């Protein structure tokens, strides 16, 4: 099963990178480098260390923002799912947050919180938190009644019902919310570096574009995608370790 | 003298109550304007299996959940071993129609879950669970997850979980309705052996007349809107017979017919 999914991943990577290489060679645009050129630029940035310096900067708002969103998002989501009153109070905020055009809100955030780390963390949170909160709350609301009745009939306390039944039962949907939230957080981190102040990876992207070094620009974009994929895979592994029986693979496996 | 009298009274009380493990008296349950149960009284003799039988919507599951302490009656009282029910208790264990197994937990953890919630130490509760897993015939499946088991095997896990907490009263809510016919027959035979071997009181909800007559010491026929006990039937003659020949017994067939005749007019 593992080798089959690994093969599929390799095949799909080959197809995508192959198409990229061909599109770069035609070329579809003067500003679109080939895959190999981009990889060379990436290698150069790794060797001279500029990529790591950039990530040291970019990861700060990203990690802080994602951590805040995950912890706070799950707690608020649990609360909303458990209490109708809390649902009434907080759900609308996150629904509005999810629908809001973030790019338009950035100037407002900058006016309030300045151009530093705070604003960038906010952007990451606004991107990442709503989906985590909304997924968590709907998962909690959909806990099968018979699980709750079962645990009550076997004398579970309220906390035991929450930690031993509701949270594990909700975990697949909570984790899918986390995956979406983390991906959105990556978008938020880059967006904040493009829209607020060019630092880190956002700076590489902006600067390379301004000097028409498109290979470096795409290398930076590529690196952030790779990082996001690695992060999502780590999240999946965590889920596997925590709730083994919940992970059932695919019907076709 | 006064002391002696109190003792005699207490003894009398204990003696009187040992006949019935569970006593339901004057229980009503309303959902808004709808009367689900009305002034229902029923006794469940100790060590016996009592079936609650009736057409759908007659409130048999509601009654079972009230006895379990999962629902609160609008009126009336339930005594389990002489003490009133105020919520779920150690003296009762529940077997669910849809099994209610935790999909993220192994068979072992599912069976031990009742003991886990009662704060029994891990090694101890796993020893007990392994014993009951063996007893229900799931030896070797301790590490499997529920989705890897068939419906019948899942219900065996549910049964092992209820047995492992060693309650006096076992509440079973249509436990065999979600398993196939052949598995159900095997379950019914196993249930008879269980009633004979374990010193427990079974309360068994079913909508199958044949099943009720086959397994019960006492059948309470419930009729709907509002629910009441219409009749109590005790197929005592069948209990002495060999389990293999019950279904061919004239008494069995007569009782099945008799119950069907009384229920027919209530089935839509």
Task: Give a short overview.
The complex is a heterodimer of chains A (253) and B (268). Chain A has 253 residues and is an all-alpha fold.
The CATH superfamily of the largest domain in chain B turns out to be: P-loop containing nucleotide triphosphate hydrolases
The residue fraction in helices of chain B comes out at 25-40%
Q: Choose one word for the global shape of chain A.
A: globular
The DSSP helix count of chain B reads 9
CATH topology of the largest domain in chain B: Rossmann fold
Task: List the helices and strands of chain B in order.
Answer: HEEEHEEEHHHEHEHEEHH
The shape of chain B is: globular
Got a strand count of chain B? Answer: 10
- Total domains of chain B: 2
Major beta-sheet overview of chain A = none
The CATH homology group name of chain A: MetI-like
Explain how this protein is built:
- The complex is a heterodimer of chains A (about 250) and B (about 270).
- Chain A is an all-alpha fold.
- Chain A has a single domain (about 35-245), classed as MetI-like (MetI-like fold, Orthogonal Bundle).
- Chain A is about 85% helix and about 0% strand.
- Chain A is built from 10 helices and no strands.
- Chain A has helices at about 1-25, 35-45, 50-80, 85-100, 100-115, 115-140, 145-155, 160-195, 200-210, 215-240.
- In chain A, α3 runs parallel beside α6 (about 115-140).
- Chain B has about 270 residues and is an alpha/beta fold.
- The mean pLDDT of chain B is about 85.
- The termini of chain B are far apart.
- Chain B folds into 2 domains: about 40-90 and about 170-268, Rossmann fold (3-Layer(aba) Sandwich); about 100-165.
- Chain B is built from 9 helices and 10 strands.
- Chain B has helices at about 1-15, 60-70, 105-115, 120-135, 150-165, 180-195, 210-215, 235-240, 250-265; strands at about 20-30, 35-45, 50-55, 75-80, 85, 90-95, 170-175, 200-205, 220-225, 230-235.
- Chain B is about 40% helix and about 25% strand.
- In chain B, the strands form 2 sheets. Chain B has a 6-stranded mixed β-sheet, with helices on both faces. In chain B, strands 2-1-4-5 form a 4-stranded antiparallel β-sheet, covered by helices on one side.
- Chain B is globular and about 50 Å long.
- In chain B, a hairpin with a 2-residue loop joins β1 and β2.
- Classes of the chains: A mainly alpha (about 250), B alpha/beta (about 270).
- The interface between A and B is medium-sized, with 22 and 30 residues.
